[in-house]
Design goal:
It contains seven helices and seven strands. The chain is α/β, with parallel strands linked by helices. The longest helix is centred in the last third of the chain and has 20 residues.
């Protein structure tokens, strides 16, 4: 039933304003990092790719039944993440039923989040997403895949995904930090070109969710 409701929700998105959400998780990590990033991404998408997303994202916990009201949930932070058994059950139902989770490593999350993703999908490997995937193709083309926004450890940026029935349902962006690029310009003092690149990639993610 929840899967049917989520599918109906996604089909009706073009007709009215939609909401997206930020995941408030346990474990001690700063889930609240980058407070201006989602509002800025929403503003950019509404202005450039004809979305009608409400300007203020909601905050949602992973075990909440309200999770199914949001077609896109964003998660970020620098530290520890712990999903309880009820979190895992709810997240798996949400993602298997048509929901989408974007996890953006804000630097320091990687060693924690990988084991938590494995709890949700123990039989699925995190696969690196090739630059040929539709998420990198429209509405903005990223011929080399995920852009590099912040230096972190100097490694190349990588986009990993969990696929359910050949559909990308979980996107994990590593060594990239899209969320920092979405923040207000004065927060990280990123040049316009870097911020625009991050916002365009974010718009591609939103577009993928709403059109696939």
């Amino acid at each position: 039933m929840k899967k049917i409701l989520l599918v109906l929700l996604l089909l009706s998105i073009p007709c009215f304003s939609q909401e997206i959400a930020l995941l408030k998780y346990n474990g001690g990590g700063d889930w609240y990092a980058n407070p201006t990033s989602l509002p800025n991404l929403i503003k950019y998408c509404n202005a450039n790719i004809n979305t009608r997303i409400k300007s203020k994202p909601r905050t949602i916990e992973p075990n909440s039944p309200d999770l199914f009201s949001y077609p896109f949930v964003h998660m970020t932070g620098h530290g520890n993440v712990v999903f309880s058994d009820s979190d895992v059950t709810n997240l798996k139902k949400y993602l298997s039923g048509g929901g989408f989770l974007h996890i953006d490593d804000n630097y320091g999350m990687d060693k924690y989040i990988r084991k938590e993703i494995k709890k949700i999908f123990p039989n699925n490997d995190l696969l690196e997403i090739p630059s040929s995937h539709p998420i990198f193709q429209k509405p903005f083309v990223f011929p080399n895949g995920l852009p590099k926004i912040h230096e972190h450890d100097g490694k190349r940026p990588q986009a990993f995904g969990i696929f359910v029935e050949n559909k990308l349902v979980l996107l994990y962006t590593y060594e990239c930090d899209l969320g920092d690029g979405w923040e207000d310009a004065e927060v990280n003092n990123d040049p316009f070109e870097v911020r625009e690149k991050a916002l365009k990639m974010g718009a591609n993610i939103i577009n993928y969710i709403f059109t696939n």
